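Database export, one record per block. Field names are fixed; values are copied verbatim from the stored entry.
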Amino acid sequence: MQDLVVLVADKNAQFALRGALQRHAALGIRQISFDFRTHPGRDGGVRTSGPDVLAGEASRFSHALLVMDHEGCGQPDVPALEIEAALDARLQSVWGSRGRAIVIDPEVDAWVWGSDNAMREVLSWPMDEPIRDWLRGRGFAFDANGKPHRPKEALDAMRPIHKQPRSSALYENVTRKISLQNCTDLAFLRLRAQLNEWFVPA
C-alpha cells in the first residue's frame, strides 16, 4: 500500500505538488510514496465528484488529498474554506482522518511566486529588471506577500520575454527550488500542516 494519493484538476497542479512532495525534508516529513489522479472535469469535476473518485482508492493508499483551485470550480461566490470544509466532510465517510481537501485561492499558479530568484533561474529570465518590477510596469497588482492577484495571467505575460513554451514542468521546476518553509500561501500552509501530521519523520 502506498502512502498518499493526490487528486488534482490538471497537470499544472500535479507537477507543482510533485516538485514539493519530492522534497520531504523541506516539508518536515518522512519520505513517502505517492501517486496522482487527474480529474477529467478539472476543478469543477474535483469539487462535484472528487470524493467519489478517491473512495475507489482506499484499498491502495493509506492517505488521500483532494487539491483544487477556487478559480474555475463553479462556485465563485462560495468562500474557498467553505468549499474545503464540505469536501472534507464527504471525504471522511471513507477516509476518516486520513483524507483531506485543500482549496487554493485563487489557483495553484500562486504557489510558483515564492521567489523571484527561483523564477528567474527556471525561466532563464533575460532582463536585468526584476520580474515583479517588470510586471508592475505592465499593470499587474500584487498582494502583501508579493504574489500577483492574477498569477496565471502574470506567467502568461512573461512568455514573450523568456520565450519558453507553456509547460507544466515549469511548476515542478519552481517548487523544487523555492523555500517551502517560508511559503505564506494559506492553502499551502494547510497542506504542509496536514502532511506533517500524517507523515512524521522517523
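Remark 1: Residues 51 and 91 are 5 Å apart (CA to CA).
Remark 2: DSSP finds nine helices and four strands in the chain.
End of record.
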